[in-house]
Amino acid sequence: MGYGQESFRSITRSYYRGAAGALLVYDITRRETFNHLTSWLEEARQHANANMTVMLIGNKCDLSHRRAVSTEEGEQFAREHGLIFMEASAKTAQNVEEAFLSTASKIYKKIQDGVIDISNESYGIKIGHVSQASSFGGRDGSASQPGGCCS
């Protein structure tokens, strides 16, 4: 591992603390990025809350003709490690919004089920003024009413 990557890893460790969710992204056209997923996931789980939601994203699905990692391999890795899985393209925006919404929805469900204690900030959730429990927001990510948790 080069200096730049080690330096990046030391910075990212501080971001894991207090994170309710994480997006673990690999490049479907570069197998080595997929091969490093286990170490990145171990590091995230070592430094984060045990209930952190992790979304695995196979990026660059617009370049499927250059695919080095199959969709099935991504699905299997996600299944084996209890992750949500999706392929996306940052270039075309395919499934980008869906990845964030799916991750947020899973976190919200954990809050509703009592898995995440919103009164404990170590879970990464800070609650502001909330007018209704249903003010999670609309499709565009905005709060459904002024003064909701996302305003």
Automatic annotation (TrEMBL):
<dbReference type="InterPro" id="IPR050209">
    <property type="entry name" value="Rab_GTPases_membrane_traffic"/>
</dbReference>
<dbReference type="InterPro" id="IPR027417">
    <property type="entry name" value="P-loop_NTPase"/>
</dbReference>
<protein>
    <submittedName>
        <fullName>Uncharacterized protein</fullName>
    </submittedName>
</protein>
<dbReference type="GO" id="GO:0005525">
    <property type="term" value="F:GTP binding"/>
</dbReference>
<dbReference type="InterPro" id="IPR005225">
    <property type="entry name" value="Small_GTP-bd"/>
</dbReference>
<comment type="similarity">
    <text>Belongs to the small GTPase superfamily. Rab family.</text>
</comment>
<dbReference type="Pfam" id="PF00071">
    <property type="entry name" value="Ras"/>
</dbReference>
<dbReference type="InterPro" id="IPR001806">
    <property type="entry name" value="Small_GTPase"/>
</dbReference>
<dbReference type="GO" id="GO:0003924">
    <property type="term" value="F:GTPase activity"/>
</dbReference>
